Amino acid sequence: MTPAMPIRTILGAAALACAATCAPAGAADGAPFDVAVTVDDLSVHGPLPRGLSWDGIARAYIDTLRAHHVPQAWGFVNAKRLQEQPASSAVLDDWRRVGWPLGNHTYSHLGLSQAPSLHAWIDDARAGEPVLAARMGKADWHVLRFPFLDGGDEVPRHDGAITWLNAQGYRIAEVSISFDDWAYTDTYARCLDKGDAAAIARMKADYLRRVDAAIVRTRALSQRVYGRMIPQVLLTHLGAWSAATLPDVMARLDAAGARYVTLEQAQNDAAYRAPSPRVGNGMLMERHAQDLRIDVAGLPAPAPVMALENVCR
C-alpha distances in angstroms, 19 versus 14, 28, 212, 248? Predict the structure, then answer.
């Protein structure tokens, strides 16, 4: 078998093609702000392009975050992927080797609203626990990120899940900022397999414009809802696209004034402790605005993701 090539080697041509259009937007716009980085879908997110390995993707991710002095990144695990692709277990080894924690993303990435029943969802969450207990040792792994940020669209199901989670000692990993990296994952794998560096460069330019716009919106939304810039919790995914673009994403966050903190530090802020009837459901700031009926119309927002369905077909 041909050894997996380093992800940076494969992306070299695409990075050069993007250089003219993918530069960071500029210096910080406003005061520094805290960001906790979290990573969903360990150990496998999306298709694996030829020449790459899940272990290599994870190491590229870790190297980038450490280069930007990220002190901790919670990795949220779908344990079913370890059964489907046993070699990907090295991802969890990599994560724990640098001392970063692992949390529960349910066994099969099951959305609460999509589950056949509340009990089926609880069983799926429970099924994800043995892997965490084995990897985390004496450290507390009782942190859960709802798949799809789906905390249940019906009150009884949502409240039943929260009651169960509280009884088990779980904390919810909220999300306040995301760049929709998942949307590019499948198309990126097709383009990488075809060697279409020009298409990848167009995708990257589109994505990084969205990153810039999302940072601007985050500042505006936080000011509108809280009257200040609250600590942010960033959602990313452990896939080939996300690892390849992460250096540029981190450069943009740096330029905007990001200071990296742990999830615990971010969620110790009062904004994350405010009561909500829909805790864990959707994005924190948008949800809080809805709870309090705060009008956020007219705030800047990223353009829709470029049309990707037919790219590299």
Answer: 9, 21, 16, 11
